[in-house]
Write a structure and sequence with these properties.
The chain has 70 residues and is mostly helical. Helices cover 57% and strands 6% of the residues.
Length: 70
């Protein structure tokens, strides 16, 4: 119960931040190591009412973006 409560808190906080930049109907990618957490992904999707896209190796998306930027 404690772990689920923490997941809910993180999902709500993440969804509130996402709402500030979310463009209605735009594909939304869940990146970083947290994207491996299926529970967190599900809770954010439920909170936002959207489907999140998740890469096979989400933990390296930031590094790829940084490398392409140089």
């Amino acid at each position: 119960e404690i772990a689920l409560g923490i997941h809910y808190a993180v999902a709500r906080r993440s969804a509130n931040l996402l709402r500030k930049i979310y463009i209605n109907g735009a594909p939304t990618v869940f990146a970083g190591g947290a994207a491996y957490n299926k529970c967190l992904k599900h809770l954010i999707e439920k909170e936002m009412g959207i489907n999140l896209l998740c890469a096979d190796n989400p933990q390296i998306l930031g590094a790829i973006g940084a490398a392409l930027n140089n």
